[in-house]
Amino acid sequence: MHSKFAFLFASWRNPSSQRMTHEVRSMATTLYDAPVSNNGARVRMILYYKDVPTTEVKIESPAKIGGLKSEKYLEEVNPQGKMPALEEEINGQIYSIPESDTIARYLGAKFNARSGPGDFAPRAGTQLAVLADRITRHHDIYLASIQGCLYKATPRLQPFATFGTRADAIDEFQQQLIRLERFIPDDIKQDPYLLGKQPTQADVALFPTLVFAERMLPKFQKTFCLEPKLDSWFKFMTSGKDQVATRIYQEISSGLDAWEANQRWDTILGAGIIDTKPVTIFDKIISGDIPADIVYEDDLCLAFKDINPVAPTHVLLIPKQRSCLTQLRYANDDHIFLLGHLMSKVGHIATDLLGLESYRLVVNDGSGACQTVFHLHIHIIGGRALLWPPG
């Protein structure tokens, strides 16, 4: 390692770097990880395939030093508060290495010559290196980046990557699984692994994430279905013939069992929270079974004239997918994008399409407020003077 780079990297830990260097000078490399982590499992698979003992790489839970968000972890291990993270001592300095891809490549190169299956550091520029990189990059950019849609509460004011709703992100996740098929060689049926007779970075990146998908997609009434070549590989990996894959499958599954016991999905829209209320007249308007005087439509919402208007202009704006929004009171963080979309269209509908200079928005919530159709709808009312307070 270039001495200037080493100095700068080590200095990232100041002022504690010198103290930590003294304290852990003779300790093993430490991987901070948890069994349930699919990204961490990517790294663990390399260690297991190469039979690296814990005297060389010790696997510790972040809880050992206070947890992912503890001051110690943030200052000394990973300022992002994420795992996996690796601590490695080189020439008396402690190097903190975050991100699963970086760790997997580093450890893959370090232990690649060890006995045990796997080529985790093929020579740069070779066909194997390019093919493995193509699959791992697809995984990291298009699957891992949105996998949270399968198990995380919706981030407040922060959608899943570029997708405003969980449902859209899940659909994209499934599409990206389909697109992976083109990157797998046609001779997969002869060779058990994605790129031949030995596991590579591609296998260890993808397998743990598919363990997640197999368990979680059905929770959202989605089918875990793989294209033929990928399906053949996954069946081999889960057949018990690969002991490392079996071990990882069991580790992740035990963690997911704990998530189940803690009711992780019970409050997630589409999994624990499912719309089971009866269909309404609005559903029939959306499907086209009942005609309506439509004034605006896009992928998410529909606006049409009320058949019992209370003013010269009276339009109803509704979401096309009710998503448990029978009433506004049931809105939660999963609905932020949808509700924002509805409100963002009001001005265009009222001003540009209906020609209103002033108007009122009304949402009735409950039968006591004169709600008669239990599918969230916004009344856009105008065309005459509107009194205050409303009745």
UniProtKB/TrEMBL annotation:
Among InterPro entries, the record links this protein to:
Glutathione-S-Trfase_C_sf, Glutathione_S-Trfase, Glutathione_S-Trfase_N, Histidine_triad_CS, Histidine_triad_HIT, HIT-like, HIT-like_sf, Thioredoxin-like_sf
Where along the chain is the active site annotated?
377
Gene Ontology molecular functions: catalytic activity
Report what the protein is called: HIT domain-containing protein
Enumerate the PROSITE patterns for this protein.
Answer: GST_NTER, HIT_1, HIT_2
Which residues belong to any copy of the HIT domain?
281-391
Per the database record, which ranges form the GST N-terminal domain? Answer: 27-115
Taken from the record, one Pfam family name reads: GST_C_2
Q: Which Gene3D superfamilies match?
A: 1.20.1050.10, Glutaredoxin (3.40.30.10), HIT-like (3.30.428.10)
Residue ranges of coiled coil: none
Motif Histidine triad motif, residue numbers:
375-379
Q: Determine the domain of life of the protein's source.
A: Eukaryota
